[in-house]
Design brief:
The protein is mostly helical and about 230 residues long. Helix content is about 80%, strand content about 0%. It is built from eleven helices and no strands. The longest helix is centred in the middle third of the chain and has 32 residues.
Length: about 230
């Protein structure tokens, strides 16, 4: 879930995943809940950052190197999926090793506690209307294809295409799933508040951009490079 959400939401995937998963952890006898959930979220979250168009670092790298985003997808998407699979395999291997060192009585007690906690949670859970999550995967796929086509057949930069396309695309997606009015209402209420919250990020990025420009204009980059070579 973290991998899928990070593919088209980037930073917003972290709080969404946390508030979605955190209440359900109380149904299981996990001792270090915060450590468990932080690892579970960040491992999946970090994998799509190497290719997703909504990740700022991807746009910056493509702008700096002049590479085409569509040319890196056949390499980076399998690479990120391989990392996700490797993480799952390593987690399962570590879990199996730990199980061997646990007493059988403790395992039975843990299983019984888990079963009773789940049953208790189901009794207090109110059935809610749900939608099939396949439409999220379809939306990600369509957006990826759209950006790739625009990049190949227009002269606009990758960063400009993503910046200008992501909000209208999100609105059209909301219309298709019957949430267009809700999208407008929430967007109108959240935009002013989020702009104020992002002032620290703007300051950091502007400062970083100014520093890079100053290093290039002054020629200090050659000095820094010489220091790095000396250290190497």
């Amino acid at each position: 879930m973290s991998y899928i959400l990070s593919s088209f939401m980037n930073v917003a995937a972290l709080p969404m995943m946390y508030h979605t998963i955190r209440p359900s952890l109380d149904l299981y006898p996990i001792q270090q809940k915060e450590r468990f959930i932080s690892r579970a979220i960040t491992h999946g979250y970090s994998m799509p950052i190497v290719w997703t168009p909504v990740a700022p670092i991807v746009g910056v790298i493509i702008e700096m190197t002049g590479a085409r985003w569509s040319s890196i997808l056949p390499i980076m998407i399998p690479f990120s999926l391989l990392g996700l699979v490797l993480d799952c395999v390593m987690g399962q291997w570590i879990a199996n090793r730990r199980l061997k060192h646990l007493d059988s009585a403790l395992l039975d007690e843990t299983a019984a506690a888990r079963e009773s906690a789940v049953e208790e949670g189901e009794r207090h859970t109110v059935p809610a209307r749900s939608f099939h999550p396949v439409h999220i995967l379809v939306a990600i796929l369509v957006f990826t294809i759209l950006i790739s086509v625009l990049e190949n057949y227009t002269r606009f930069s990758f960063l400009l295409l993503v910046t200008t396309a992501v909000v209208p695309y999100a609105f059209l997606w909301s219309l298709l799933i019957g949430k267009g009015k809700r999208f407008v209402e929430k967007g109108r209420a959240m935009l002013p508040a989020h702009l104020l919250k992002m002032k620290e990020q703007f300051f950091v990025f502007l400062s970083a951009g100014f520093m890079i420009s100053a290093i290039q204009a002054s020629g200090a980059g050659h000095v820094i490079n010489a220091w790095i070579i000396d250290v190497k």
